[in-house]
Design goal:
83% helix
Length: 196
């Protein structure tokens, strides 16, 4: 059954992606995508495969292919807000990688708008984090601090630990660039605490 094979290959590719084994992830995701292309499967699970392929190609620095797969994910999402939140967040990441910060900000804000309409608190925290990172890149440290504080509070309150160290690193950077060394130091102390 080709449908099950696509799911199995997609899952294996996703697992390899999670542990940063990009060549293995590529092998399995491409197997899944080749089957999809051959027999034209229509399934919501395809969105996850295309998102993962987009993330994979971002890590491999093939930004054109990353963009292609993320846009295919949009097409297949059927307007699903949780999928679109994730896709826009990854399009934001992609545009940060290509240094198109205005476009990154556009996708981050689009992601935040959708994330607020879902039950996925982790997506809201992640989106606030992304917006803060983009404002850091743009040199608007006041706005970066505002968004990063929101991301930190949401992550802390909801025990979403996977984002906290990244948020604190970005927050420390923003305070430092703002010459607010006291808060940079306090943030660094929090960072040490969360890393222990």
């Amino acid at each position: 059954n080709y449908h099950n094979l696509v799911i199995i290959y997609g899952n294996i590719g996703s697992l390899y992606l999670d542990i940063n084994q990009y060549q293995n992830a590529r092998t399995y995701l491409e197997k899944a995508i080749n089957i999809i292309d051959t027999i034209n499967i229509e399934d919501h699970y395809l969105v996850s495969i295309f998102i993962n392929a987009g993330i994979l190609y971002m890590h491999l620095e093939n930004y054109k292919k990353a963009n292609l797969f993320l846009n295919l994910a949009i097409e297949k999402s059927n307007g699903n807000k949780e999928y679109l939140t994730t896709i826009y967040l990854n399009l934001s990441n992609l545009n940060v990688e290509t240094k198109d910060y205005e476009k990154a900000l556009f996708y981050s804000k689009k992601s935040l708008e959708l994330a607020k309409t879902t039950d996925r608190i982790d997506n809201i925290a992640s989106t606030y984090k992304n917006i803060g990172q983009v404002y850091n890149k743009l040199g608007d440290y006041k706005l970066a601090i505002s968004y990063l504080k929101k991301a930190f509070e949401i992550s802390k309150e909801n025990k979403i630990l996977r984002y906290i160290t990244d948020i604190l690193e970005e927050l420390k950077y923003a305070y430092h660039k703002s010459n607010d060394y006291k808060n940079a130091f306090l943030t660094d102390e929090k960072l040490i605490m969360y890393n222990d």
